[in-house]
Amino acid sequence: MAAGRATAVTAVVMAKAGVPGRAKTRLIPAIGPEAAAAVHHAMLMCVVRRLERWWAGPRVLAMTGEGWERAAAGLAGGGGWAVVDQGDGDLGARLERVWRGEAVGGGAVAFFGVDSPDVPAEALEAMPGALDGADAAVGPVGDGGYWTLIAAGAERGAALLEGIDWGSERVHRQTHDRAAAAGLRCVDLPAWHDVDDIADLTAMRRRLIAATEPALVELRAGLDNRLGPLRP
């Protein structure tokens, strides 16, 4: 990945602590609560380590859930991260709170979740340039959400978070609708996959077979150790 590209944009990872029974709940029927929480933690660790490698600008880890302080200390210690509490409310309220908070200051931001840890490097590298001719950009995923939202500033960009049916298949489309209503030019970044259920997890593990980037190799090894080798 190309270090030093995104110095004007703050990367924000929105994540919950990996508490068994509360993390990656759609995986629980297939692998159980402990393993589901371990998968969540491994994916979060991967996102954090990948951004440490290539994102030269400010980085914020915004956490929620029981034990988030302890979890954040294990993830972000010594890695140049500011750690903040997401606070209460729906996802839109929490995103805006973090965006306008002291760590970001309402400036240009790129939000990341945990569910798309293996986004290709070329997609990540395209992100800063997306704001050269637009106010915002989103990276779609197949279930109608997005793997990232990048926007120039909260003063106008917070409109992208209003009236969104979070967790539904309408999130990506509604974000574009909100942008149009606010007079913002919003473009799409390359689409990718996210991990919600066991089929998604298996598909990601198959993609990781060819991975050579250290954080992705570590993710593959961690999943193999926890879940067993991937069957042909």
Task: Explain what you see.
With about 230 residues, the chain is α/β, with parallel strands linked by helices. It is built from ten helices and seven strands. It has a seven-stranded mixed sheet with strand order 3-2-1-4-6-5-7, sandwiched between helices. Helix 2 (about 35-55) runs antiparallel to helix 10 (about 215-225). Mean pLDDT is about 90; it is low at about 1-5.
Q: Round the Cα radius of gyration to an integer and report it.
A: 17 Å
Give the total of beta strands.
Answer: 7
Residues in β-strands, percent? 15-25%
Largest sheet: 7 strands, mixed
Mean pLDDT: 92
Q: What is the terminal separation in angstroms?
A: 30 Å
What is the strand arrangement across the widest sheet?
3-2-1-4-6-5-7
Helix content: 40-55%
Poorly predicted regions: 1-7
Tally of helical runs: 10
| Structural class assignment | alpha/beta
N to C succession of SSEs: EHHEHEHEHHEEHHEHH
User: What shape does the CA trace take?
Assistant: globular
